[in-house]
Amino acid sequence: MRRLLLGLGVALLVALAGCRRQTEQSFNSVDITGAGYARDFSLTDQNGKHRTLAEFRGKVVLVFFGYTQCPDVCPTTLADLARVKAMLGDAGDKMQVLFISVDPERDTPAVLAQYVPSFDRSFLGLYGNAEETARTAKEFKVIYQKVPGKTATSYSVDHTAGTYVFDPQGRLRLFIKQSESVDAIAADLRRLM
Questions:
Q1: Per-chain mean pLDDT for the chain
Q2: Which of 9, 140, 178, 193 is the most exposed, fewest CB within 10 Å of its CB?
Q3: Residue 153: what pLDDT?
Q4: At 103, phi and psi to the nearest 5?
Protein backbone atom coordinates (compact mmCIF):
# COMPACT_ATOMS: atom_id res chain seq x y z
CA MET A 1 0.00 0.00 0.00
CA ARG A 2 2.84 2.35 0.87
CA ARG A 3 4.47 1.73 -2.53
CA LEU A 4 1.16 2.28 -4.27
CA LEU A 5 0.65 5.64 -2.52
CA LEU A 6 4.23 6.67 -3.23
CA GLY A 7 3.79 5.69 -6.88
CA LEU A 8 0.52 7.64 -7.13
CA GLY A 9 2.20 10.65 -5.48
CA VAL A 10 5.05 10.60 -7.98
CA ALA A 11 2.60 10.18 -10.87
CA LEU A 12 0.59 13.16 -9.59
CA LEU A 13 3.71 15.33 -9.35
CA VAL A 14 4.74 14.39 -12.89
CA ALA A 15 1.22 15.16 -14.17
CA LEU A 16 1.18 18.52 -12.40
CA ALA A 17 4.61 19.40 -13.76
CA GLY A 18 3.36 18.55 -17.24
CA CYS A 19 0.33 20.79 -16.77
CA ARG A 20 2.51 23.62 -15.50
CA ARG A 21 4.71 23.46 -18.57
CA GLN A 22 1.72 23.57 -20.87
CA THR A 23 0.33 26.71 -19.22
CA GLU A 24 3.65 28.61 -19.18
CA GLN A 25 3.90 31.21 -21.89
CA SER A 26 6.18 30.07 -24.67
CA PHE A 27 7.95 32.19 -27.24
CA ASN A 28 7.55 32.21 -31.01
CA SER A 29 11.32 32.52 -31.46
CA VAL A 30 13.87 29.96 -30.31
CA ASP A 31 14.28 30.17 -26.53
CA ILE A 32 18.02 30.04 -25.76
CA THR A 33 17.78 31.22 -22.17
CA GLY A 34 20.86 30.13 -20.23
CA ALA A 35 23.12 29.72 -23.28
CA GLY A 36 26.80 30.16 -22.43
CA TYR A 37 27.68 32.41 -25.36
CA ALA A 38 26.87 35.91 -26.65
CA ARG A 39 27.82 37.32 -23.27
CA ASP A 40 29.24 40.66 -24.40
CA PHE A 41 31.02 42.67 -27.07
CA SER A 42 33.35 45.65 -27.16
CA LEU A 43 32.82 47.63 -30.36
CA THR A 44 32.42 51.21 -31.61
CA ASP A 45 29.15 52.71 -32.81
CA GLN A 46 28.66 54.82 -35.94
CA ASN A 47 29.20 57.97 -33.87
CA GLY A 48 32.62 56.86 -32.60
CA LYS A 49 31.42 55.89 -29.11
CA HIS A 50 32.75 52.70 -27.50
CA ARG A 51 29.90 50.32 -26.67
CA THR A 52 29.34 47.16 -24.61
CA LEU A 53 26.19 45.14 -24.03
CA ALA A 54 25.95 46.25 -20.39
CA GLU A 55 25.21 49.83 -21.49
CA PHE A 56 21.80 48.82 -22.74
CA ARG A 57 20.46 47.24 -19.54
CA GLY A 58 16.86 48.19 -18.95
CA LYS A 59 15.98 47.67 -22.61
CA VAL A 60 15.23 44.62 -24.70
CA VAL A 61 18.26 44.47 -27.00
CA LEU A 62 18.21 42.91 -30.46
CA VAL A 63 21.61 42.12 -32.00
CA PHE A 64 21.87 41.38 -35.72
CA PHE A 65 25.09 40.72 -37.67
CA GLY A 66 25.25 41.87 -41.28
CA TYR A 67 26.75 44.34 -43.70
CA THR A 68 25.52 47.48 -45.41
CA GLN A 69 25.93 46.25 -48.99
CA CYS A 70 23.82 43.15 -48.31
CA PRO A 71 21.21 42.93 -51.08
CA ASP A 72 18.41 41.22 -49.20
CA VAL A 73 18.56 39.73 -45.68
CA CYS A 74 20.07 42.72 -43.87
CA PRO A 75 17.77 45.47 -45.16
CA THR A 76 14.75 43.19 -44.80
CA THR A 77 15.65 42.36 -41.19
CA LEU A 78 16.27 45.99 -40.25
CA ALA A 79 13.02 47.08 -41.93
CA ASP A 80 11.12 44.33 -40.08
CA LEU A 81 12.65 45.39 -36.76
CA ALA A 82 11.63 48.98 -37.46
CA ARG A 83 8.07 47.75 -38.07
CA VAL A 84 8.19 45.79 -34.79
CA LYS A 85 9.28 48.92 -32.94
CA ALA A 86 6.41 50.89 -34.46
CA MET A 87 3.94 48.11 -33.54
CA LEU A 88 5.06 48.32 -29.92
CA GLY A 89 4.04 51.97 -29.68
CA ASP A 90 5.47 53.69 -26.59
CA ALA A 91 6.96 50.36 -25.46
CA GLY A 92 9.17 50.54 -28.56
CA ASP A 93 11.33 53.01 -26.62
CA LYS A 94 12.34 50.04 -24.43
CA MET A 95 13.84 48.29 -27.47
CA GLN A 96 17.37 48.78 -28.84
CA VAL A 97 18.54 47.36 -32.17
CA LEU A 98 22.28 46.87 -32.65
CA PHE A 99 23.54 46.07 -36.15
CA ILE A 100 27.05 44.58 -35.96
CA SER A 101 28.98 44.78 -39.21
CA VAL A 102 30.79 41.70 -40.53
CA ASP A 103 32.41 43.83 -43.26
CA PRO A 104 34.97 46.05 -41.50
CA GLU A 105 36.65 46.89 -44.82
CA ARG A 106 33.66 48.72 -46.31
CA ASP A 107 31.42 49.50 -43.34
CA THR A 108 33.09 52.65 -42.12
CA PRO A 109 31.52 54.84 -39.43
CA ALA A 110 30.25 57.22 -42.13
CA VAL A 111 28.63 54.37 -44.09
CA LEU A 112 27.03 52.91 -40.94
CA ALA A 113 25.84 56.36 -39.84
CA GLN A 114 24.00 56.79 -43.12
CA TYR A 115 22.66 53.24 -43.45
CA VAL A 116 21.56 51.97 -40.02
CA PRO A 117 19.55 55.00 -38.77
CA SER A 118 17.74 55.15 -42.12
CA PHE A 119 15.59 52.29 -40.80
CA ASP A 120 15.02 53.91 -37.40
CA ARG A 121 16.90 56.80 -35.78
CA SER A 122 17.47 54.81 -32.58
CA PHE A 123 19.16 51.87 -34.30
CA LEU A 124 22.94 51.72 -33.84
CA GLY A 125 25.56 50.34 -36.20
CA LEU A 126 28.58 48.79 -34.49
CA TYR A 127 31.94 47.98 -36.01
CA GLY A 128 35.42 46.85 -35.13
CA ASN A 129 38.61 46.05 -36.94
CA ALA A 130 39.02 42.58 -38.48
CA GLU A 131 40.23 41.06 -35.20
CA GLU A 132 37.47 42.64 -33.07
CA THR A 133 34.85 41.56 -35.61
CA ALA A 134 36.13 37.98 -35.61
CA ARG A 135 36.24 37.87 -31.79
CA THR A 136 32.69 39.22 -31.49
CA ALA A 137 31.35 36.83 -34.13
CA LYS A 138 33.01 33.90 -32.36
CA GLU A 139 31.47 34.95 -29.01
CA PHE A 140 28.02 35.03 -30.66
CA LYS A 141 28.62 31.84 -32.68
CA VAL A 142 28.09 33.80 -35.88
CA ILE A 143 29.66 32.55 -39.09
CA TYR A 144 30.61 34.94 -41.86
CA GLN A 145 32.74 34.58 -44.98
CA LYS A 146 33.70 36.91 -47.80
CA VAL A 147 32.55 35.70 -51.24
CA PRO A 148 34.62 37.13 -54.13
CA GLY A 149 32.83 39.28 -56.70
CA LYS A 150 33.78 40.48 -60.17
CA THR A 151 36.09 43.10 -58.66
CA ALA A 152 38.07 43.30 -55.43
CA THR A 153 35.50 45.61 -53.84
CA SER A 154 32.32 44.00 -55.19
CA TYR A 155 32.42 40.97 -52.90
CA SER A 156 29.48 39.80 -50.82
CA VAL A 157 29.54 38.31 -47.32
CA ASP A 158 27.71 35.14 -46.39
CA HIS A 159 26.68 35.33 -42.73
CA THR A 160 24.41 33.94 -40.05
CA ALA A 161 20.99 35.51 -40.55
CA GLY A 162 19.23 35.61 -37.21
CA THR A 163 18.77 38.06 -34.38
CA TYR A 164 19.77 37.60 -30.74
CA VAL A 165 17.44 39.04 -28.11
CA PHE A 166 18.49 40.07 -24.59
CA ASP A 167 15.99 40.86 -21.85
CA PRO A 168 16.10 44.12 -19.84
CA GLN A 169 18.40 42.45 -17.27
CA GLY A 170 20.96 41.77 -20.03
CA ARG A 171 20.34 38.01 -20.24
CA LEU A 172 20.38 36.26 -23.61
CA ARG A 173 16.86 34.89 -24.14
CA LEU A 174 15.91 34.36 -27.78
CA PHE A 175 17.19 33.73 -31.27
CA ILE A 176 14.85 35.10 -33.92
CA LYS A 177 15.02 33.14 -37.16
CA GLN A 178 15.02 35.18 -40.34
CA SER A 179 11.62 33.77 -41.33
CA GLU A 180 9.84 34.95 -38.13
CA SER A 181 6.92 37.31 -38.71
CA VAL A 182 6.87 40.84 -37.30
CA ASP A 183 3.72 39.98 -35.32
CA ALA A 184 5.46 37.02 -33.68
CA ILE A 185 8.55 39.10 -32.88
CA ALA A 186 6.45 41.90 -31.38
CA ALA A 187 4.58 39.37 -29.20
CA ASP A 188 7.86 37.91 -27.93
CA LEU A 189 9.26 41.36 -27.11
CA ARG A 190 6.10 42.31 -25.22
CA ARG A 191 6.56 39.19 -23.06
CA LEU A 192 10.15 40.14 -22.31
CA MET A 193 9.28 43.74 -21.47
A1: 89
A2: 9
A3: 87
A4: -130, 70
Q: Is the pLDDT of residue 11 over 60?
A: no
Quick one: pLDDT at residue 68? 97
Determine how many CB atoms are found less than 10 A away from the CB of residue 11.
10
What are the CA-CA distances from residue 123 to residues 100, 128, 174, 188, 190 (Å)?
A: 11, 17, 19, 19, 19
**Quick one: pLDDT band at residue 19, thresholds 50, 70, 90?**
very low
Secondary structure in 3-state letters for the chain = CHHHHHHHHHHHHHHHHHHHHHHCCCCCCEECCCCCCCCCCEEEECCCCEEEHHHHCCCEEEEEEECCCCCCHHHHHHHHHHHHHHHCHHHHHHEEEEEEECCCCCCCHHHHHHHHHHCCCCCEEEECCHHHHHHHHHHCCCCEEEECCCCCCCCEEEECCEEEEECCCCCEEEEEECCCCHHHHHHHHHHHC
* pTM, two decimal places: 0.85
